[in-house]
Protein: Transcriptional adapter 2-alpha
Organism: Galbula dea
Amino acid sequence: MERLASFSNDPFDKPPCRGCSSYLTEPYVKCAECGPPPFLLCLQCFTRGFEYKKHQSDHTYEIMTSDFPVLDPNWTAQEEMALLEAVMDCGFGNWQDVANQMCTKSKEECEKHYMKHFINNPLFASTLLNLKQAEEAQHNETAIPFHPADDPPRPTFDSLLSRDMAGYMPARADFVEEFDNYAEWDLRDIDFVEDDSDILHALKIAVVDIYHSRLKERQRRKKIIRDHGLINLRKFQILERRYPKEVQDLYDTMRRFARILGPVEHDKFIESHALEFELRREIKRLQEYRAAGITNFCSARTYDHLKKTRDEERLKRTMLSEVLQYIQDSSACQQWLSRQADIDSGLSPTVPVPSNSGRRSAPPLNLTGLPGTEKLNEKEKELCQMVRLVPGAYLEYKAALVNECNKQGGLRLAQARALIKIDVNKTRKIYDFLIREGYITKA
């Protein structure tokens, strides 16, 4: 009778023939009465009637071969195993390499057979599903895997992104520093011995109970992070920025209640308010159309275009009137240009303060958030505020003047003005300040 041979096609994986010690190739014979271990013979030794110890030539036997179909009439069991081994060796999708390794089938035949019987076969699909469910049930009580985080990034240790992720380590599903990280320290010196008094024993039990409550709080916080997908903070912030400004404010206010509602209910709550905001804005727009006498959307598009054009023209007239107002006063014109530069750079425009002489003087420059401010001392900050010079430019001018002074052994004001091409009054103030503070010397 025929039986399925070893799963491997390599003869070195099978035990040798018990008669001649040669490596077995299919078909070969297995004694049905001897063993274990199995008593295997090649066809030559079987035809000679080889006998050894308890094995007799008249014992029943089995012919071991894999030359029969399993899933497809045109594919033998041996070819099925060869296909699986080739896919394992060459990788899924490399069908030309798989066909080259098999030698008996073409690229198209290998791909079609594998996809039909091993990928799209409902029998194998249900088996894989059962295996996956069993694996999930087995690991149900292990470390929290943070699946909603969608495979968070794996930054280098102590990088900015790693700090944003609170030191989360995706490979371990854990944090570098846990919540209440030193909770275990209270247990390090506790030892239950037989001669403990009842009060001391009760105190030790109370300490252990407190430790358990702290562990539960640690797990509760991990569960909140896992359920809401808070590990990948940047992705969370990107999703939050898709809402309008008003809804973002509501989102920020209601974030503290997310742990009570749960992730799905909280998202529904925010989405419902976002929808309400959109509806109210659309209703307001339709009411504006109705007040303007518009009754169809074609006219509404024309109205929106004309409104946008009118707003742009009004802004241009406002800017022109300001230019005409300040064009006769150089100081006021410079102040207006500075204010427009602040607006273009995203800073809050400064408000002019009238002087006693009737001329407008610019207020001190606000250095908050400007690059290079942390590199200045208090006197340098005061100079930059009064001269209205950004810290980065001041540091460049200072470095240039100091280097030139070191080369020449001293520096004159005319040389300083030739090095830095800015307002002469600002150059004079910077030059005097550097001499007063000892950074440079006069030539």
User: Anything to note?
Assistant: Residues 144 and 173 are 6 Å apart (CA to CA). The longest helix spans residues 198-228. Residues 1-9, 139-150, 351-358 have pLDDT under 50 and may be disordered.
